[in-house]
Amino acid sequence: MKHVRITTRLVALAVATLVGAGACAFDPEADGGGGGGPVPVGAAEVTGASGAPGPDQRTRPTTAPPKQEAKPTRTPTRPAPKPTRPAPKPTGSPSAAGCPQGEHQREVEAYLARLGGFGTLTVDGRQSAADCAAIKKFQKRYDIRPAHGRAGPTTHDVAKRLATTDTARCKAGSGTTFCIDLTRQTTWVMRNGRVLVKPTVTRTGMPGYRTPAGTFTINYRNVKEWSDPYEVWLPYWQHFTQGMGFHETTTYLHNKAIGSHGCVNLLHADAVRYWELGRVGSRVVLVGRRPGT
């Protein structure tokens, strides 16, 4: 009997150990500030710490039939009193606008209005259906995830960097020149002294692998280059100095906790566009310095 009790206790202890080991789960930071470790490819932008479900969360539709309006059994003895003045119209809410309002609503509205091309916005700090559509369009263009129309930290950061980029800092000259503002982490293309491709986002070298400022020339291109030291494909590769060049990013571009090994990372659409415009001999001008490098 004693032997059976000991065996029972050992089995119970083993089950508890296994269940406890399986209970641990990764809990990402709910800020979106990029202060954690490397984010895997496809990670979402966490823009809020609210426990309420966001617009990207779908709920199961109800299957219950709608209730029928009850018919009156008798005619009212007197009419209902009419309101003396119309009820005030709602001033707008996240549910009415179709997407949630973020903590940087007014600033994002102002930056997007300044950038242009994303729709009509009202710079008043209140979410509207038009604001929602414009912010979603902006988020989709620059691969900010999820593209739910909320003016969160990453959307605000990207909009500010793009809207405040001074394209005149790039001394382009004649011909096609690829320009990179290392401080703002933006890039654009000039041709004969005029902006050919408007500023877009980039991510350059992380601490220990700083991308240098200066003027260089593209001297090698390959639509799909293999990186020997890091064992990863580099799509739309255009080399310009010291093993550094343009290529499509292989990670989530807006994760500031990481960076490249000196290369200029681009979103897919921008990498394709830069490949179409680039040639061996094209100029590359880098100004400023990435913060923290």
UniProtKB/TrEMBL annotation:
Annotated Gene Ontology cellular components are: extracellular region
Asked if the record carries the keyword Transmembrane helix, the reply is: no
Q: Which residues form the active site?
A: H247, C263
Protein name per UniProt: Putative peptidoglycan binding domain-containing protein
Ranges where the L,D-TPase catalytic domain occurs: 176-287
UniProt-listed InterPro entries: LD-transpeptidase, LD_TPept_cat_dom, PGBD-like_sf, Transpep_catalytic_dom
Q: Which CDD domains match?
A: YkuD_like
Species in which this protein is naturally found: Micromonospora citrea
State the signal peptide span.
Answer: 1-25
> Where is the stretch described as Disordered?
35-104
Keywords, ordered alphabetically: Cell shape, Cell wall biogenesis/degradation, Peptidoglycan synthesis, Signal, Transferase
**Biochemical pathway:** Cell wall biogenesis; peptidoglycan biosynthesis
Gene Ontology biological process terms in this record: cell wall organization; peptidoglycan-protein cross-linking; regulation of cell shape
What Pfam families does this protein map onto? YkuD
Lineage of producing organism: Bacteria, Bacillati, Actinomycetota, Actinomycetes, Micromonosporales
Domain of life of the organism encoding this protein: Bacteria
